Amino acid sequence: MEARVGIEPTNEGFAAPLATVGKLLKTNGCDLPQQPLRARIGPVARLPQPHSRPNPAGNSSQHNGGLQRIGPLLAEVHPEFAIPKRRWRMAESIACVRLKRESARQNLGFSSRPFVLCGLPVKRPPDGCLLHERRNGKFVLQVTGHPSCGLPWGQDRLVPIFLATLAIRQRTPRITFDSAAQMLDTFGMAQGGSQYRRLVGAFQRLFGATIFFGTDTQREHAAVVHRARFNFMTEARIWYSRDPTLRPLPAECQNLIVLSDEFYGEVVNHPVPTDLEAAKALSSSPAALDLFMWLSYRCFTARGRERVPLFGAFGLVSQLGSVDYARRRKFREKLEAWLDLIRTMWPKCPASIDAAGTGLLIDRAHAILPLAELA
């Protein structure tokens, strides 16, 4: 018996998606063929004849009447096409970012200045570590975690983006939204029990955290501490349901987040626009997300060609929320990988590591299109 499903190369209708995702897949060790694929009818592989003896285990994955799943067959005949689903989802997300940007339909969100200039921890801090500090020039960010839940880290950084976006849109520190599933959907996260528990943990860590954001000159005066040290929220009430068809909750049961006056004032007075589709694509890569948001802001404010040092007290390594690197070469390798990922979404990103490997060269550019173009 012959399988009648095969592969025929063709370029019809696939040139743009390939250009978008090809580099990303190559970065992850997966090369695409020069021409995309289209299913056709034709003999490709001859499957073995079914065994005369019945399968006592009743395993449906074994040959049944001469039929076999096309997925394992394709992986056996063309192993270069066996790309994990996670990478395909990332490639699709990146293609969506570029498509919406090129068609001036970006999904505009906002972030707060402290977490654009300085990043939260990328990885889970060691047990007992309750202080995180990062520096960006004269600006300093300190986050103190609550002893019962620790420091916010990893994908917890998505929560301030979600809250800042709603605060700008609703123009009030009392933020309401339909369900916790709304946030999971905003950033492309699965709406399962594990993701829900992670979301609850993120809100707990952020609710218990105390933030200091200021400059060295401000820290020398005790009078500034009153306005410089703040919390994210003063109240949080979140209902969760896995049923997307659930009717809106009554007013007394709505999901409610009350931002602190200091955090809300920072968001309203210094909103930093960001691309929510890009945040969604980079949600599983916190370090790359930090770098993308900072580059979007820094390239917008640049007056021309500028150089940002990589190392030292005022270097980029002291700013990002990534772990400390014992060797400079290791940080440069990581930085180049993050830049490669960012360039797949933002091909005109002007950032590059200088020839000496000690600085990042940037120039004025727009990752977020001006409002006139988005209108």
Concise account of the structure shown:
By secondary structure, the chain is α+β, with helices and mostly antiparallel strands. Helices cover 38% and strands 17% of the residues.
Q: Could you estimate the helical fraction of the residues in percent? A: 25-40%
- Nearest-angstrom radius of gyration? 24 Å
Query: Strand content of the residues, in percent?
Result: 15-25%
Number of strands: 14
Which residue ranges are poorly predicted, with pLDDT under 50 across at least 5 consecutive positions?
A: 1-18, 30-63, 221-227
- CA-CA gap between termini: 58 Å
| Domain unit count | 2
Helix tally equals: 14
Class inferred from helices and paired strands? alpha+beta
Mean pLDDT: 78
Strands of the largest sheet, in order across it? 4-5-7-8
What does this structure look like?
The protein is of the alpha+beta class and 375 residues long. The protein has two domains: 5-50 and 70-83, no CATH class; 108-374, no CATH class. Helices cover 38% and strands 17% of the residues. The protein has helices spanning 15-27, 70-77, 85-102, 113-117, 158-170, 180-186, 193-208, 216-219, 225-228, 261-269, 276-281, 286-301, 328-345, 371-374, and strands spanning 5-9, 37-41, 108-112, 131-136, 139-144, 174-177, 210-215, 229-231, 233-237, 255-259, 271-275, 306-309, 352-353, 359-362. The strands form five sheets. A four-stranded antiparallel β-sheet has the order 4-5-7-8. The longest helix has 18 residues, at 85-102. It is globular, with a radius of gyration of 24 Å.
